[in-house]
Amino acid sequence: MGTPSIEALVKSLTVEEKAQLCGGKDFWSLHAVERLGLPSIMVTDGPHGLRKQSEDGDHVGLNAAVPATCFPTASATAATWNPSLIEKMGKALGAECRAEDVSVLLGPGINLKRHPLGGRNFEYFSEDPRLAGDLATAWIKGVQQQGVGTSLKHYAVNNHEFGRMTVDAIIDQRTLRELYLSAFEKAVKDSQPWTVMCSYNKINGVYAAEHKQLLNDILVEEWGFEGIVVTDWGANNNRVAGLKAGQTLEMPSSGDMNTKKIIAALEVGCLTESELDYAVTRLLKLIVKAKETLSLPRVQADLHAHHDLAREVAHESVVLLKNDNGILPVEAKQQKVAVIGALAAHARYQGSGSSKINPFKLEQPLDELKNAYGAENVSFAQGYHLDNRSDLEAISEAQLLAKESDVVFVFAGLTPKYESECFDRSHLDLPQNQLELISALAAYKSKVVVILQNGAPVTMPFIDDVSGVIEAYLGGQAGSSAVADIITGKVNPSGKLAETFPLHLDDVASTPYFPGNGRQVQYREGIWVGYRYFDTANQAVLFPFGHGLSYSSYDYSNLTVEAPQALAADANSVVTVSLDVTNTSERDGAEIVQLYVGQANPSVPRPLKELAAYQKVFLKAGETKTLKFELDYRTFAFWDVVKQRWIAETDSYTIFAAASIADVRSEQSFTLNTDTAKSEPQASLANYFTPAKRDFSEPAFAALLGYEIPAEDPVVPYGMNSRLGDIKDTEVGSKVYQGLLEAFGIMLGGDENASAAEADRLMAEAMVADMPLRNLAVFARDRYSEKEVLALIEQLNQ
């Protein structure tokens, strides 16, 4: 007998069952309704691998997980610029979920990289929403082809960790639409993720979990989203308000606290049963889809094949940043190879936090280079300590080894305590003891290559003192063999940066406003994020967006642009661009061709160039291929805040064919006739037309917003959304803070690696400090009821 229709199921549920379904059963599971044949389905982390707990779920959810494939993190996979490869990765992730009866995998993370210090940037794809949206779409399609759902996150404007649970992000509507929602829009429309996860923070004064404009008006009514909205774990603020706004599922379980509130709201008329049924209908569709997959024969995931796929992804994730005098590749032949750096023996292959995977197999760079060159030809020196201690003896040992060797590979990067969920980075630098080591090797510049393991941009004061630099990112469990294949020339590097590497922290336009004070963060820079700012302001960078070298060389020619007589938003006409690309070397390789578009005389501030399209093309030595691109109306459009729609103005535009934002190979200008005449530049936005001046003053930002900048919430009097960090120095609050810190420290602890243990400590401190008091009744239910939290607040305010 099959499952009854969704309509019949809704009618069969009691009010109590409906209310209960709108909250989790525990940390990772949804409620079952056994009498109707509806199972309890499981959801779990994470974006670059399955993180299913092997023991009973704890309230923080970070204990030991079953062995799984650890793929490269999102900052690495974005460097592939290869959606088809990311779709293959998604299929593998979905298969591992099937093997473990997991119904929804909580990813991908798609938030824009507003600032390079964002603590969770390693989990996000790019500073460009078009690229991020494409990759997320591919990831979702791959996973969901296996009958497993995904959770597109964190919706929205969640771009830093400090104060993330309560901070109010003040942002203008145009910037919101063009940058911070655009990738979500692409993924929702093109892949229909089963769920969207709303973020912790407020957006313009309203918590994401009860933001009707975001959850209903835009996501459902405008984009056509068919799935459910689930809260990030602990993001619920007002359960009834959230339900009315489109928040379907609260996670994790808050016991029966919010179930009772939903029922009470029905009884007094604050919530209608039709509003509740709307949410329950969507939830039932999710559960029924999951049930269909769970009823199929259980699959056996091929972890060894997935390891090979992880290596393939890592191959294309590696970015060759510098290669003076063709120092790379260093082919596997008889020579003395020096491998220097503690990270060569203890690789940093993933980030810290909720996405942490337990890899079933793990490679180390030193082992892989010994395999490549022969153990007898490879010597190792530690060079530095992972706990950041300076050691002159270790540096001297490294110098001696470098002197005696033919080539020197220095492994450097960010140890776990430098980047993690829950806290942001405090600077862009590598650990000081690593910089001291690299500086000490400057005398051997001609034979030194630095290989970086990090999840986000770093500064490189040593850039002129080494001959080669490889950005390996956090390459997953097979990243070490991938790097060895690149170094030896077995694989030709093809990765390109999906983010800008700035020269200095102060060069980033959002630095003065990042990350705010924990209560409010102002997005004063508007659209001037990443390459949009650096390129338009002519601000020098360390490495530009889209940069990446190859062992091959490529020539671009015959750029042609064909525009229709008129391009309208509601028409199917497109601008067609074609381009010939030739591999002019004697080595097969792949090139990522990037198209950028710029408008000559816009009525609103626009970047000099914006990514319009791209293709990754594989070319044999000497081969030429013709690439074709179709650019639709949206490619040329901006969000008009008055008309509340996308507008492309009749004007002159330029198409730039480029190897990076800073390496334009060919360009062509043309006149585009659209459905909108060009207007005069908006005088009120004068400051934003000249981003190089960075005069984003309060009056300028108010003009951009269209209203006065809101006042931030005061610290006192204390309330349910006060942070534990706000009360930790009070006599009453210190006891609460210390008690939670001890409990979370135990749950997060246990890592034998000293650097990882330090990261866990910092993460616990940040997690507890940022927790709003309302969540004591969720994450510490054994200690605090909601009534007791209210009593605590009353005591704090006396």
From TrEMBL:
Q: Which UniProt keywords apply?
A: Hydrolase
One Gene Ontology term of the molecular function aspect: hydrolase activity
**Taking every annotated instance into account, which residue ranges of this chain make up the domain Fibronectin type III-like?**
591-661
What Gene3D superfamilies does the annotation carry?
Glycoside hydrolase family 3 C-terminal domain, Glycoside hydrolase, family 3, N-terminal domain, Immunoglobulins
On the tree of life, the source organism's domain of life is Bacteria
Q: Which family does it belong to?
A: Belongs to the glycosyl hydrolase 3 family.
Protein's recorded name: Glycosyl hydrolase
The protein's organism comes out as: Agarivorans gilvus
* Species classification: Bacteria, Pseudomonadati, Pseudomonadota, Gammaproteobacteria, Alteromonadales
